[in-house]
């Protein structure tokens, strides 16, 4: 493996115009990254993965999901994982919670930060949550109310913001109306999901411009069509300062077959280093963590940066 420090790259030449000083990386590898894996990853491996990611300097690690274990068997160990997780100071460990049953489980384990996850489209709401478009909000409303009453931080995800494999194009107005409902419910942040990775930068700009409160927005790009990094740069230029990514580019949604891996954290970090945006993560540690995880999963990481630095 070549060390980034030895290479002295990437070279910082780009103009920082219109870019934020600092970006928060919302690392989803242990949740979005692993949820689609067919072979069950052991609990000890998941715990070590999270610890390595924290040691690499990432401050937000989405740890798991309190969903129905039959719906996502890979994360059926969520309660055990939280019980055994050694939390590092200064690191937050949000978990996905779809309903009150999930919230009960999360509260019992001392979770401080949760994310509800809605859909901008009717079809995906039914496929992912077994609820109609309107029913999903009815399911989330008591979760958000109770979670906030308990002092929890609540994030809202919105999937299929840039296209849906069953419904095709998703109008920007529809995305904004659905996102508004999650923000108005009390979510501190709305993460706009390109679940199937079809967005392009102009589309990203159009969706972001349609929301008045860019400070409350995050972006969640899957890299199916290789556009995740360009889309991220477009989002940063629009004022977004929280970016979701997954170490090694792991990922996918079991209920959206067209979804592949998330934007790789290493690819994101390489770009942020190049354009001089702070993020707090150590690229060499991330790469060695992804190589370690790839060995456990039995296949190489799809991240271009991991491949380049490891010659794989
Ligand atoms: P349902 O079958 O409609 O559930 O599933 P229900 O409310 O009818 O309850 C049926 C039984 O399940 C009950 O038990 C409940 O207690 C139990 P019974 O009374 O029959 O014995 N149950 C639960 N048990 C444990 N934990 C729970 C839970 N809830 C109910 N939380 C449900 C509805 C929402 C639960 C189901 O559809 C589900 O779990 N869906 C999750 C799907 C999922 O995790 N998808 C991947 C995450 S989303 C994503 O990846 C996209 C994202 O990355 C952004 C992007 O890329 O766009 C976030
Ligand atoms: Mg996702």
Automatic annotation (TrEMBL):
<dbReference type="Pfam" id="PF00682">
    <property type="entry name" value="HMGL-like"/>
</dbReference>
<dbReference type="InterPro" id="IPR013785">
    <property type="entry name" value="Aldolase_TIM"/>
</dbReference>
<feature type="domain" description="Pyruvate carboxyltransferase">
    <location>
        <begin position="23"/>
        <end position="287"/>
    </location>
</feature>
<dbReference type="GO" id="GO:0004419">
    <property type="term" value="F:hydroxymethylglutaryl-CoA lyase activity"/>
</dbReference>
<dbReference type="InterPro" id="IPR000891">
    <property type="entry name" value="PYR_CT"/>
</dbReference>
<protein>
    <submittedName>
        <fullName>Hydroxymethylglutaryl-CoA lyase</fullName>
        <ecNumber>4.1.3.4</ecNumber>
    </submittedName>
</protein>
<keyword id="KW-0479">Metal-binding</keyword>
<dbReference type="InterPro" id="IPR043594">
    <property type="entry name" value="HMGL"/>
</dbReference>
<dbReference type="GO" id="GO:0046872">
    <property type="term" value="F:metal ion binding"/>
</dbReference>
<dbReference type="GO" id="GO:0046951">
    <property type="term" value="P:ketone body biosynthetic process"/>
</dbReference>
<comment type="similarity">
    <text>Belongs to the HMG-CoA lyase family.</text>
</comment>
<keyword id="KW-0456">Lyase</keyword>
<dbReference type="GO" id="GO:0006552">
    <property type="term" value="P:L-leucine catabolic process"/>
</dbReference>
